[in-house]
Structure formats: structure tokens, C-alpha cells
Amino acid sequence: MLTAPIFESVEGAYLDLLRLATEQPEHRIDARGNAAREVIGVAFRLTDPRQRLPYLAERKANPVFQFAEALWYLAGRRDLEMIGYYAPSMRASSADGVRLGGSAYGYTLFSPRGASQSQFDQVVELLLNEPDSKRGYLPVFAAKELRDRDNPDVACLAGLHLLPRDGRLHMVCHMRANDLDCGLLSDVFSFTMIQEYAAIQLGLQLGTYTHTIGSAHVNDANAERVKRVLDEADSRPAAPSFTFPAMPESTEGATIAQVLRHEAALRTNELRYSTAHITSLDLAPYWQQVVMLFELYRQIQHDQRAAVDPDLLAALHPGLRWLMERKWPACAAAAVGRTR
Ligand code: 5HM
Q1: In this model, does residue 337 exceed pLDDT 80?
Q2: Averaged pLDDT score across all residues of the chain
Q3: Cβ-proximal residues to 312 (8 Å cutoff; 6+ apart), any chain
Q4: Which pLDDT score, from 0 to 100, does residue 340 have?
Q5: Ligand 1: which of 178, 191, 219 to mutate, most ligand atoms within 8 Å of CB?
Q6: Mutational pocket test of ligand 1: of 156, 175, 217, 219, the residue with most ligand atoms within 8 Å of the beta carbon
Q7: 6-31 b/e (C-beta count within 10 Å ≥ 16 → b)
Q8: Which atom of ligand 1 is nearest to the CA of 32?
Q9: Which residues contact residue 122 at a Cβ distance below 8 angstroms, ignoring those fewer than 6 apart?
Q10: Cα–Cα distance for residue pair 96/81, rounded to 1 Å
Q11: φ and ψ at residue 72, rounded to 5 degrees
Q12: Where is the Thymidylate synthase/dCMP hydroxymethylase domain (predicted)?
């Protein structure tokens, strides 16, 4: 088969890649102090890019970070202040402690350059004029990133290719490197969110998502966790099944900015929201769910509660709730209290 193997959701592709890299590695590498097993030149295609979260108790995907990162990209940001709150480990990648470099993909794609429009807006305009175009490419990795040998943050994303075909927006992602256990899931989450956002701006249905990787690897440091994930997948009687909802067609730049205003108020603990307040906000229910995640995270980080507000947890989409209960002990505790 010359096209990429097909999966409906990211979970199946993630598990098969973990198996490939750990059981049949092609190479052993040790780049920048990270010993890893590697396969080169791999790809997969998702038929439903909305199914962008894995439901594995051993992997504990964090939907709060996933949405924060996707919004950080869509808003064209590169500040550590926002993203470091959700992923403290990203602080190590910042050269100056203030901004991210190559991995701030949103800054490269969505922020206007001087008087010119952003790369993203330029490609949307091109595709509105010529949908069959093959030029809808959004390059991210830049050769100049290699000038400094000590650069701690060289973009792993080479580029995203938008292809409107037959009323649907397909996307092909090219990564120079992907950490299969740590990077792949959040990358696929955010890039498929960018794809869905682009489809809405172009007035198209969501098409397929194809992910290609130059160096696909599993670091030795994560080998134990990867084994536990694979054991869970092999031994569970049935995989949990949740359907991730569609982004509302009304979503535009102003919507992202509006959600991020709530995010900032909750991150800085200036405001605290009840469930009733969130459901009365002038936002589509889809984006209200994201605000709920930010409020739950505020309760965990700022209030340091042993158990989050059970009503708020109960108001979450079942798939998001399943993940939050596995990721955060304060959510697990609230769920136990609710069922007593
Ligand atoms: O030495 P190098 O720059 O390739 O190290 C970056 C590491 O972060 C690699 O393991 C790469 O696969 C992983 N990574 C990822 O998987 C990094 C980023 C941030 O650019 C990402 N996905 N989005």
C-alpha cells in the first residue's frame, strides 16, 4: 500500500506506532542526551480527525493542556506565561524564560507579519480563490533555526498542507521528528483543531488528516510507561468509546479571543466561575466546555482542593470527564463523592 494506513481515531495509530518503535525499532539513537528507539519515514491517516483523544488510563491525556495548547496556537502566541501554566515542562525549551521559539507554531502560522497578513490568512485566501490548489502549504521549520547549535527549541513541525477536495478540507502534516509517547498525541490534537478551524473558515466539511514523521521515536526514559500503555490496550475487554463533538461553525478569530479572555481570568485567579455562570456565557456549548476545563484546573492549581466542584465535573462531556477523572486526583475524588 502506498498511501498511509488508515485509522478512525488517533488512539489506534498511537498504539500501533508505539508497538512498532518498541518491538521492531530500526535504529538506536542518542541525540542531545536522549537515548531512543527509532523508526524512520512513517505515516498514518485519520478518517475522523475529531477523534483526537486516546482513552487509556495509563496514558492519562490531559484535556486542559490540549485545549490550552490548541488555543495558544490559534491565537498566534508564543508567551511562556500562558502555556507554562498548563505544561511546566515547556519552560525548559524557552531560551529567555519569556517566549517559546520554534515550537510556538501558532506564532509562525497565525500572527500577522508587519503589514502583511498571517501565513494562515494568506493560504485561506488562496484556497478560497482556487480550491484545487496544491500551494496551500504552511511552512513552520526554518533553516535559520539550526544556526545556533545550542538552540533548545527547533520546530519539530515542518509544515501543514491544506487541501480542499470535493467539499472537504484534508490536511497533511509533515514532522521532522515526533516523540511517539510524549509529543504525538498533543501534536495531533492541536493540528487537527487547526484543520477543523481552517475548514470552518473555508466553509468546508472536515476531511481526512494525514500525519507523516521523519524520525519517529520512543525515548528509553519512557519505555516503562509505554509498556504499561500497551499492556492496558492488550488486556482491556473493550476500549472506552466517546464521540468528540464538532467545533461550532460560528467559530472565528473573535471566538478564540473571547475564550482566551476567560482563560486568562481563571489562570490568574482573578475570577472563579460556577457551572451556572459558565452555561450562561455568550459562547457555544462546545466552548463553554473548554471554559469548564479551565475552571476545574483553576480549582486544582489555585484552590488546591482535595476534590473539585462535583456539579462542574458532572456538566462536562462524558469523554472529557473520563479523562479528567483519570488525570487529576481532585477530579477522581469528586467523582467518588458524587456516586456515594
Ligand atoms: O533534538 P530535537 O530538537 O529533535 O528534540 C525535540 C524532541 O521533542 C524530539 O524528540 C521531538 O520528536 C519532540 N517533539 C515532538 O514530538 C517536540 C515538539 C516541539 O517542537 C513537538 N513534538 N511538537
Answers
A1: no
A2: 97
A3: 274, 275, 278, 292, 295, 296, 299
A4: 63
A5: 178
A6: 156
A7: ebebbbbbbbebbebbbeebeeeeee
A8: 1
A9: 116
A10: 12
A11: -60, -40
A12: 13-242
Which ligand 1 atom is at minimum distance from the Cα of 105? Answer: 20
Instruction: Give the atom of ligand 1 at the shortest distance from the alpha carbon of 219.
Output: 10
Please tell me the distance between residue 318's alpha carbon and the centre of ligand 1 in angstroms.
31
Please give the full DSSP string across 74-102, using - where no structure is assigned: HTT--BHHHHHHH-GGGGGG-SSSSB--T
> CA nearest 230: which of 48, 11, 9?
11
Closest Cα to atom 19 of ligand 1: 103
Percent share of the chain, pLDDT over 70 = 99
- Least Cα distance to 104 among 28, 185, 190 occurs for 190
What are the tens digits of pLDDT across the range 13-55? 999 999 999 999 999 999 999 999 999 999 999 999 999 999 9
Q: pLDDT of 237-259, one tens digit each?
A: 999 999 999 999 999 999 999 99
Q: Are 99 and 78 in contact (CB under 8 A)?
A: yes
Contact 47, 208 (CB under 8 A): yes
Q: How far is CA 337 from CA 222, 305, 314, in A?
A: 33, 13, 12
Ligand 1 pocket (Cβ < 6 Å) reads: 31-32, 102-103, 154-156, 177-179, 183, 187
C-alpha cell at 150: 545550542
Distance CA 101, CA 85 (A): 17
Region class of 203: left (phi > 0), else alpha (psi between -120 and 50), else beta = left
